[in-house]
Amino acid sequence: MKSLLVFGCMVVLCVSGASAQMVDRATYLKEFQQRVKYLETVYDTSQSVGFYQIAARYKLNSNIRQADSMFVEALRVPTNDMFWMFPVIGAYIHGKDKMSPETKAVVRNAWKTYAPYRGDTENHWAMYYSSLFLAAEQWPNLPGSEWYNGKSSDENRKEAREYLFDWARITTTIGQGEFDSPDYFAEYAISTILLAQFAQDPQVKQLGSMMSEYIFADFAAEHLDGQYLGGFSRIYQPAVYKPLMSTASGFAWLYFGTGERTSSGWIMVPALSGYELPEIIYQIALDRSKTYIQKERKRVRNVIRYGNEKNPPVYKYTYVTKDYGMGSLMGGILQPIQQHTWGVRYTYGRPYTTIFGLHPYWSGMELGMFFPEEVKTLIADVVASKGTYNNPNKWTSASPFERTFQHKNTLIALYDIAPGTTAEHINGLFPRNLEERIIDPSGWIVCKAGDTYVGWYPLQEYEWKEELETPANALNDGGRPQLERVKETGIWRLRSYKLQNGYVVEVRSKDEIGSFERFHAALKKSVPKGTMKPGAVSVDYTTIGGEKMHFRFPEERKLNGKVVDLSKTKLFEGPYLHAEVGSQKLTMTYKNKKRVLDFKTLTVTE
Amino acid sequence: MKSFACSILLLMLFLGVAVLEARQSTVYASVVSTKLFVVGAPNPQTGLFYQKTSDDTLWQHTGRNNIRAFGVDVHTPSKGNVLCIASGNGVHQSVDGGKTWKITTGWRITEVLSVAIDPRAAKTLYCSTPYGVYKTTDGGTTWNERTNGMGTIFVQTVTIDRNNPERLYCATEEGVYRSEDGAGTWKKTGLHVGGVRSLAQHPVNSDVLFVGTDDFGIYATTNGGKYWEKMAAGLDHVAFYTMVFDPTNPDVMYAGGYSTGVYKSVDGGKSWQRMNDGLTNLNVHAIAVDPTNGNRVYAGTMFGGIFKSENGGTTWRYAGLSGAQVWTMTVQPF
């Protein structure tokens, strides 16, 4: 019977996941519940021992005895720090009134004897303190001897509460630090949704609810067809070139009904929680009837060495259409290791739905900016978990020698790379499944991806390398083979070894310019003029829309003769989201609707 | 006659035991990681390890696992009843010799790199972090930022002057700072090189200080930091993470760092010689000398565990904690 139900859900969801048309609230909620049901049923029937399987059984009141025995088994040797904390407290809350006293005692004892590490990133702390807060509420009035850290329930609850409010304050004042991460979206969403649904303290519950809306709204404004658009603080390979592999895309499927169906465990805790997204965020995520520009301001992760400012600003610019989005960060080291500075993402050609470029950079100095361990051994430390960090072929990177300048759907990237830098080349990623990849005598590389057209003008000589995916090269960040990728087609790598370098990228859709031939012809008339000398890297370019861009590395940006001042960028500015720096307030608008999150007063008004 | 001989024998036995007891000491090692550590992954044991010198190879673990322990300080007057660990999670403290532990710091204090217990007032603690220095005078119930004159800079270590607990030194990314009022205010000393990683104070003359830096070698001062001199004789390396005096002979010093192995000086730091026979990992982050036996020296390495010498560094042998990244070591005379 259960398998029949799963099959039924799959039929419904395959249809609903295939294309994303905006639906009315009643239909949305019905389809959302179908997706939740699908997930519940997958995990409820799974026989493997895991916290999501346990939580599903408790939530659905299905085979409680098995859930109990699974829980005891799963807690036998606790590991994984905050990644242990949130599913354990989530499963416990669903089952606390159903599990046996013995199981309850095992769970309680785990929070006494296992000491999770708090971690060193913003997402670690969000998970750690949201879970600890909920745990301290579940077991109040216990002395420090009953907790892994020697603090009493009251001390733990107060510390967690204070941190969570401070995290919300800084995020809504100068921006999120680990911002817009397709792969770490889940860590924040899980943390805030757990608080929204299960905190007993009404203020923390409200904070969780508002921060959930905040990060979902942030995603929604840069969402297209299940994909997160723009530049990102952190993303893994291969998701950086197969966008729907990111965990945020799982959330897009669950909450927006876009992208591809998934049974990822990352969405299981939210799915079980009963959390529902406000309609306005869903509408912002889905309505692509009009093209728009989304500007945002975030903050750099805490700089602890080699810098004068703890959290310098990050400026983000994203151009969003119904067919594609192009987005960028302004460049430089904004986050170590996994930064995605710019990219075009489009709706054609899953799973390879992106074109982007980067300077694959690594150094002890970059890591020493953010991590307290010894600079000279940090690379080895990092490579232990991020195997591609010191690989010259990697597809994620921050670089002090890279800057961008984006205006609408035109982007210029410039590089002035110091000799001896790792690495002494730049890379561009072009999927092999493009319909066209024409090397025009004018210098433009002209690409067609369905109704999206991309032109790329290299400012220096380069070479092409075709990279098919095989088990040998299809490694994830942990250095492990990704065997399922063998069947896929791979990419073309553009590589240029010139240290003073750059390129211009133009993107248009069929709706914007008409035929591909017309786009091709327009590009041929718009050839950039670059200067590529050490310390003097610049380009002057008139876009195919007729606007004049001047960009001199690193920070001289002029548009139609006027200096572009990025420092005026607000936390959010676009047709749907608005927030001033320092305001602690986010205003969402959609047609005649308005929803204001005021974190100073902890209120939501419509 | 017989009873006299027995008495003598008993006396000798008693004195022998007393001598043995006097020579018993305890080695503490803070371990950031054993093998490679990834937050959120199943990690091998980290934290604080210790052994009695008589045990030789058996290391005991105390406190919580999985905490990335950078620093350790032991309150000598209480014979180790008060112990502190500087860790990624904050300052862990035990006041019962390691039986129970508590993280005394809250969320504002993180990635603690060193901790110092005032030997005359065990409730006064200092800790250093990438965001400056913090102090408590109530055993960790309340901590306060103490960065006046220094700012929220990266502070690798904080050291309490052995003769004046109100005088403190900090090794920072921007040189060495000194406080004369228990961290109330800080002034930069005459050293203007960055990346100071370690600081050692002379066992007798507290105005003599040595520092190791990440890129500029070893500097010394003989006047509490007014001016500094670079020590170069015999040194072929630039990155020094640890420097110690032999407490039994202040002319003897040891230093270690990135790919250095162990350097030894027998003339108070004027000249140095590498002493690496048997030392199979040359990235040394911690060195400690047994105060009851100056020939017994320990070297904690980065990802290579601990090595021990019984002859003042002439030869070394592996002494346990395989794969450990040992950050700090201390040997206590009890």
What can you tell me about this protein's structure?
- The complex is a heterodimer of chains A (606) and B (334).
- Chain A is an alpha+beta fold.
- Chain A has 2 domains: 2-286, Glycosyltransferase (Alpha/alpha barrel); 292-565.
- In chain A, the strands form 4 sheets. Chain A has a 13-stranded antiparallel sheet with strand order 15-16-11-8-7-5-4-3-23-24-25-26-27. In chain A, strands 6-9-10-17-14-13-12 form a 7-stranded antiparallel sheet.
- In chain A, strand 26 and strand 27 form a beta hairpin.
- In chain A, helix 3 packs antiparallel against helix 4, helix 3 runs parallel beside helix 5 and helix 5 runs parallel beside helix 7 (122-138).
- Chain A starts with a helix and ends with a strand.
- The model of chain A is unreliable at 1-19 (pLDDT under 50).
- By secondary structure, chain B is mostly beta strands.
- Chain B has a single domain, classed as Methylamine Dehydrogenase, Chain H (7 Propeller), CATH 2.130.10.10.
- Chain B is built from 1 helix and 28 strands.
- Chain B has one helix spanning 2-23; strands at 26-34, 47-52, 60-62, 69-74, 83-87, 90-94, 102-103, 114-117, 125-129, 132-136, 144-145, 155-160, 168-172, 175-179, 187-188, 196-201, 209-213, 218-221, 229-231, 240-246, 249-257, 261-265, 273-274, 284-290, 293-301, 306-309, 317-318, 324-332.
- In chain B, a hairpin with a 4-residue loop joins strand 17 (209-213) and strand 18 (218-221).
- The model of chain B is unreliable at 12-21 (pLDDT under 50).
- At the A-B interface, helix 7, helix 8 and helix 15 of A face strand 7 of B.
